[in-house]
Amino acid sequence: MITPVLQGKSILDPHLLSEPGAQAVNELLREGESANTLASYRSALRYWAAWFSLRYERPIALPLAPGAVLQFVVDHAQRTTPAGLAHELPPHVDEALVAGGFKGKAGPMALSTLVHRLAVLSKAHQLRGLENPCQDPKVRELLSKTRRAYGKRGDVARKKDALTKAPLLAMLQTCDHSLKGLRDRALLLFAWATGGRRRSEVAAADMRHLRKTGGSSYTYALTHSKTNQAAADRPENYKPIEGLASEALQAWLAASRIQDGPIFRQVRKGGQLGPALSAASVRDIVRQRAHAAGLPDVFSAHSLRSGFVTEAAVQNVPLADTMAMTGHRSVASVLGYFRASSMNPAASLLDVTDK
Prior knowledge:
Helix content is 48%, strand content 7%. The protein is mainly alpha-helical. It has two domains: 30-152, Tyrosine recombinase, N-terminal domain (DNA polymerase, domain 1, Orthogonal Bundle); 165-344, hpI Integrase, Chain A (Orthogonal Bundle), CATH 1.10.443.10. The longest helix has 22 residues, at 35-56. It is globular. It starts with 18 loop residues before the first helix and ends in a 20-residue tail after the last helix.
């Protein structure tokens, strides 16, 4: 008879997860999340701990009661009263949160921040298998009515403007022939022309995914993105880089002599290359070039994505071709990046005369 016990080794219980197995699960969960997502989770949980400690004068412990979550909402969400807009966070608690670096400024939260804080708390309970207070009917109803109240007041987050062709070309004019200028020109064109890449995707761009396709054209294989987090092999993963974008990329690679590793890197004094740019550095480059071009302070790194979608619509590019570049699988999702403007031909239908 074969015994299930091995000499000197323990047999796992199929009904229980071992401690090394639990650690491996947590490591895979962390690795599967983006760095930006993990950072936002940590920030949200630190805020919850600080708020709870100041509000209830004791350390936070999960699971939270639904009452504490309801209090969190009314502490941070504005409501209309006879005296005007109000929220319930005591001033001394607000000041302590700002002084501790948990908040950037005193006052109520933006609705999007409040919703994110609740989503992170909900996930923390879910991952630990605890009763989730965010699923309590009273919490769900309060959050739903809070969203409606903000909508009725017109108090909604304003999306960043689209970085369409005209402002992009203005920013490119600020890029000289220095190593930084060549890098920034290549970076802006790479990010925009490949479908409006997110800043994390630009920072992670690597030479092993870049292929020369003849002449000065390239193809970049975007193996992992927000719209393809499972790294599925899809035809739309392969982004063509042609024209101005390919010329700028070729000039940067030739000047920097990069042959492997990260494509976009820090440029130090003396023209020495450093490590890969961070996602925050990509954001800063967009802002700096927009400022240098004399553009209004309405653009961010995400404006590259909305700019690509908006410009494609203005130039009557078929939606399927646009989605192949952005990587979106849903029409509703890609349309969310469109920004109506004076360039939209639909805005001047009455001005069109019959021939």
